[in-house]
Write a structure and sequence with these properties.
359 residues, mainly alpha, 11 helices, 0% strand
Length: 359
Amino acid sequence: MDGNRRAAEAMAQVERGAGADSGRRVVQADLKLFTWKVLIVAGVAVLAYLTMRVAEALLLIFAAALFAILLTRMTRAVRGWTGVRHGVAFALVLAGLVAVLAVGGWFIGAEVVAQYDQFSGQIGTAIERLPPQLREELARQGDPASWLSRLRPVAANVAFAVGDLVVVVFAAIYMAAAPDLYRRGLVLLVPPAGHARALQVLDVTGEALWKWLIGQFLSMAIVGLLTAAGLWALGVPAVAALGVLAAILEFIPFLGPILAAAPAVLIAFAQSPDLALWVAGLYLLVQQLEGHLIQPLMQKRVVDLPPVVTIGAIACGGLLGGLLGMFLATPLAVVAMVMVNMLYIEDKLGQGRHFPDKT
């Protein structure tokens, strides 16, 4: 009996020891899982911080990719028309763009210069019509030193913008000159088993961004036509040049319309201050129509991007990335919707994608 009792006690001790070991293993597993969760959260936070630090550079690279898509599509079209090699077609595209920019700049500049004499001759008369208090304020603000000090921050911002533009243009040229090289480089970032799917995602993304560019160009054309028609109705000279300028600068959100309106208002002011106010109101009306009606409907029509997504993307882009973020918000939303549809809805949920349209 004593032996049985001692055996039972020994068995109980073994079971208690096994239970303690099991409890320690559970605690260790929980601690390990918690440690991994902390490391993952910390890694995501560090990644988000680094992304925010280099956000402007990433946005510039994305802008260059957009421009490269345009150059690649134009090169492909030239190759289809002429049958020449990719390098020759690409050189023809670049030469054509430079020629168009040169001719357009000369045409617009000539129209503005033609109005300068009339403007300079009438601006004195217009100032004399202002109230005495406003004339005195203008006289006090006319010190060249004060104007130069105020223009320094503007000049610095313009210099940075020009530098960013140069980076985007040259990066886009390199991308479009050898698109397959950079395409393969992106695919190599994915494990070998996903190379085929990565190629499909890149192709669909490029097609969706190309459709977005088409919608953007259509919006620019409509804005140019509306602006030219309104200026013609108001009797403002240089209608064609100002309409083309409004269409081109429409590609730059918010700042572009202001730059486009400035020469039109000055030319109208050369005729009368009242006409300048009407012209300013015309540009404001066209921009309201473009931002809330034309742009969302064009993107919905061409790339099937919901208007609410377009408006929300621009608002979020402005909050997170400033002017450059607003400029690239809509194409970034296009990329995000392609990724969600292909990598989540199709691959994870096993359903057919809804964006972009497969047709």
